[in-house]
């Protein structure tokens, strides 16, 4: 099992590069369409995108095994929220890859009379559930780090006693106080994300990725151009975490 996981990690790097190229073609096709380019050129770009999508499906064969192994590791985490989010996320990824493998078999003719639209929608649903859980995990970790940073600042500079205000002055002071609180929270957020690049990259990557299944499932249509830009951005971020493993969020 470990040897398969190591082999699969090598194919993942190639898959990420092809994914970046695929969504670059999606963005290019949208740009060419808006610019009124020749129909033949648009068709060539569309065919290139389809070939890259099929190549990615081939490289993802067996990814369900790795996702199941990741779920087995996540179920032993001590933090209950992380344990729940990561375990169910990996299980959804396993189902997504399994549906994707069936779809690949249908596209190359191994499975005849396969309802490709149904299996595509099914795979995107599992993909969407996994991304929602990943974003939940990111927000949870961000919340914990913000609380930790706030406690650290409070310990360094104890709050000065605030003068009591009459009741009739509370309403007039509520807006400035709220703005000051928002500024403090924003500063905490920026500080935490700046000091935790893996969390920042994971949050950005998942935020970009989630628009892809939302568009494909018809839940929130954004158009090919936006999907292409989001897919390209998330692919570049994924490649960055492979080139620099310390940028990958753990566990």
State the share of residues found in helices, binned by percent: over 70%
- The succession of helices and strands, N to C, reads HHHHHHHHH
Question: In angstroms, what separates the terminal alpha carbons?
Answer: 20 Å
**Number of DSSP helices?**
9
Task: Please report the total strand number as a whole number.
Answer: 0
Helix/strand-derived category reads mainly alpha
As a percent range, the share of strand residues is: under 5%
Describe what you observe in this structure.
The chain is mainly α and 251 residues long. It has 9 helices and no strands. The protein has helices at residues 2-34, 39-59, 63-74, 80-107, 116-156, 170-195, 197-209, 211-216, 224-243. Helix 1 runs antiparallel to helix 9 and helix 5 (116-156) packs across helix 6. The radius of gyration is 23 Å and the shape is globular. The mean pLDDT is 89.
Describe the secondary-structure layout.
Blueprint lengths: L1 H33 L4 H21 L3 H12 L5 H28 L8 H41 L13 H26 L1 H13 L1 H6 L7 H20 L8
Helix pairs in contact: 1-2, 1-9, 3-4, 4-5, 5-6, 5-7, 7-9
